[in-house]
Amino acid sequence: MRFFIALEIPSENSPQFQAIQDRLSTLITQVRLTSLDKIHLTLAFLGEQSDDLVPKLTEILEEAAKNISPFEVTPAYIDGFPDIHNPNILWVGVKGDIDKVLQIRERIKDGLASIQLPVDERRFIPHITIAKFNETLKVDKDLEVGLEKLMAQPFDPIRISSIKLFESVPNQGFHSHNVLAEVQLGK
User: Which parts of the sequence form the motif HXTX 1 (predicted)?
Assistant: First the structure.
């Protein structure tokens, strides 16, 4: 199974991401938008692992959620990987209770290390992927200004109340995401 651990974006926040993507697709015609039902904030990508790890991964989520109450993050800015000037991926950065996101992420990393699963050591930036490109996009000054304007509106906070373990299943060139475990925060 192909696993990842994430904070899912509630469906009530989908309209604001739809609005961002609608405006984005008018700015960049070759964009591949992330399906709204797949929008999430990834905490750890585990890749292909044995499905008998699900109980242990669920325990790691339970430990990560201990004594952390539900919280909110708010869309704040747009950026890209590897950078905003030549992105393969565009994402929305968040502000708000980032300290809780980072604490959960560190606990998950510690849990994964304890069962000898590889941990991504790159700098973690809490983000929500909204679009991808088949080829690297060249962002000129005009497009950069357009992207800034796209995020220059007030956004509703996103309430985070659980951590989820997902399975990513290939399906005709795309992937569907199945929730394998959900652990509520504050338990």
Answer: 40-43
pTM: 0.91
- Interacting residues of 178 by C-beta distance below 8 A, sequence separation 6+: 166, 167, 169
3-class SS of residue 29: coil
| Residue 135 three-state SS | coil
* Interval 114-163: pLDDT, tens: 999 987 888 899 999 999 988 878 888 888 889 888 888 889 999 999 99
Q: Which residues share a beta bridge with 5? A: 44, 165
The answer to whether 28 and 150 have CB atoms below 8 angstroms apart is no
What are 115's two structure tokens?
A: 């069962």
Which residues are annotated as catalytic? 40, 127
- Position 169 scores a pLDDT of 81
Residue 10 burial (CB count, 10 A): 12
The number of beta carbons lying within 10 Å of the beta carbon of residue 146 is 17
For residue 81, give the H/E element and its range.
strand 71-81
Angle at 125 between CA 165 and CA 115, to 5 degrees: 40
Report how far residue 165's alpha carbon sits from residue 8's, in angstroms, rounded to the nearest whole number. 10
- The CATH number of 2-184 is 3.90.1140.10
Residue 171 has pLDDT above 80, yes or no: no
